[in-house]
Amino acid sequence: MQPDRIESDRRWGEQRHLPWLQVGKHSLFDGPRGGETLAQLFGGSSRLVVYRFLFGAEEHSACGSFLDSAVAHLERCDVALVAVSPAPMARIAAFKRRMGWKFHWLSSVENPFDELRHRDAPPGVTAFYKDEWGDVFQTYTCHGRGLAPLVGAYTFLDLAPQGAACVLAANQSTQLIA
Fold first, then answer.
1. Mean pLDDT, all residues of the chain
2. Could you identify which of 58, 89, 120, 154 might form a hypothetical disulfide with 107, taking C-beta atoms 3.0 to 4.6 angstroms apart as the criterion?
3. Which residue(s) pair with 22 in the sheet?
4. Distance between CA atoms of 178 and 162, rounded to whole angstroms?
């Protein structure tokens, strides 16, 4: 096994042992089917990954094609995947339609979800678990450079000389480590 893979496996193992935080079910997201609670986003799964997709009132582009390819694989493993953005649902739906994307994408405008999970933060991911009684627990959250494994371009940048230094120079608010 490669040394970097061993280190990655160790970190993911540590992440799975972090404490779980019970969360309320009151967050209401605006989606294509109307209002949906956090608990409803699980569908029939016991695990949920919410990707905080950086697409708001001002963005004119976004990259979400990797989400479409992940959904089918995750569903087979009892994991639901949704994207959440601080943009109005009509704007999300129009952009999603234009791009031909199929993943479940919701609006978090006027929703405490983003406020609890850093509204002004870069893209992020939060994992949840729903037990047999319907209680929901947040099990993991990360944003910024922690998402590098999800975005193929960062993997290539890490292989290149000077790593992701060009991204850091372009966006000083992102916490990248070259």
1. 77
2. 89
3. 137
4. 7
Q: Which domains does the chain have, with CATH numbers?
A: 18-144 (3.40.30.10)
Whole-number Cα distances in Å, 33 to 40, 111, 138, 173: 11, 17, 24, 35
How far apart CA 23 and CA 32 sit, in angstroms, is 24
From CA 130, how far away is CA 29, in angstroms rounded?
Answer: 17
Q: What does the alpha-carbon distance between residue 86 and residue 53 come to, in Å, rounded to a whole number?
A: 8
SS3 159: helix
What burial class does residue 13 get, using C-beta atoms within 10 Å of its C-beta: 0-12 exposed, 13-18 middle, 19+ buried?
Answer: exposed
Q: Are 126 and 140 in contact (CB under 8 A)?
A: yes
Q: What is the pLDDT of residue 127?
A: 92
The Cα-based distances of 138 to 49, 56, 58, 67, 132 in angstroms read: 10, 24, 29, 20, 15
User: Largest Cα–Cα distance of the chain, in whole Å?
Assistant: 50
Per-residue pLDDT tens digits for 48-79: 999 888 787 666 667 776 787 888 888 989 99
CA distance linking residue 81 with residue 59, whole number of Å: 22
Inter-residue contact 66 to 99 (CB < 8 Å): no
Q: What is the pTM of this model?
A: 0.75
